[in-house]
Amino acid sequence: MSMLMWICLIAVWALLVSTEGQGFIDDDSNVSLDVDNRDDDSWTSEAVLDVAFYLRLYKFNDFDRRYYLKSDKNSSYFYAQFPVPPLISFHWEVYEKCSENVLTCLKYLQDVISDTQFQRISSTVHVMRQMNWTMEKNSNMIRMVNDECLRLKMSDWEKPVPFRGPLDRFRWRVTASYFMCWYTMQNISLLSVFNEPCDDIGECYRAEELPDFRADNKLPYQCALYSFCPDPCCPLRRVTAPEECHDVNPCRHTMTEATEKSCKFVRNQNTRLPSVIYNEWNVSCACTAGYEYDSRYGACIDINECATVSDICDKNSEICINLRGHHKCICRWGFTWSTDQRICVTDTAVKRAEIRFASRNDFNSVKTSTSIAASTNSIWTIVKNIWHRHSPSLFRSGS
What we know:
Laminin, two-stranded antiparallel ribbon, EGF-like domain, repeat, EGF-like calcium-binding domain
């Protein structure tokens, strides 16, 4: 291997382990949630909207720049999951600010985004909403704004100012998304409701179409989830109805009818930052009676009622048997089912047999002990006779 290649490999290794990235944390102890959950500052609402728009650009349009030079169907998937494999290290500056608290994180992210070329205020969709324009009445103005929107979008795509390059911006956006998604799971109130629709994913003007049902600002934290987090329950770029998710969500393999294949994502069951980073999501699927969904296996598994439900059977007279989808209580030894009383009652025939068996065992035990003693004495007599017959006379006299 040439010296130049060795130098390149060493340089790449040094970049990966450099202090400009922070290693993943194994728990959340280094990240602070010490923040006043009241939205007292007017800047926070605008900051949330600016950050959400910029991170939606990454989620719905960017690709994994670590391994690809251009976007294709294999490299653009962040609406479904965070990058796989995850970043080797966080973007150092994002980690430094966002591990402090959510307000410090938002302020820093907004300051950086304000220096980028393509921002929320440049989006055609945003301008149309602010000005209350329609294509029927304001088509010329919309076309002018849209031309500028497309120009800025292309310029930002080719020249990622203020970052050092496309890869640096990728690491910045991914790290910011990690933290903003994780903060969404923590019930931070300033992320609960946005002050405007959140379905703008940076496409500039688009013809009238049905909105994505997931970008519903009326539901608490729904816009934050749509902007910052992948969607394990509906891993599609754009959908208009929940039914479109049935054939791709984790619940498609559950034992329910198609109309019941709904996937539920519960925020308070996904609060660990490492789990967010590694796409270890806890989701719930509707299962048939006697089964429950387990995210580890991605399927409905049998509920062991005998282990999870106390006093499900009578402890004195019954034994619980777990079966597929249900359980059954059967009578213990010495009990039998009474069709009249509908309970397990003492089986008199078994009790009488046990008494007879116990008595016979006691007699046999005495008899066996006597036989063993007699046999032992006989064996010992035989041994002594053999010994006296063949031993020297010296020992014979002592017998």
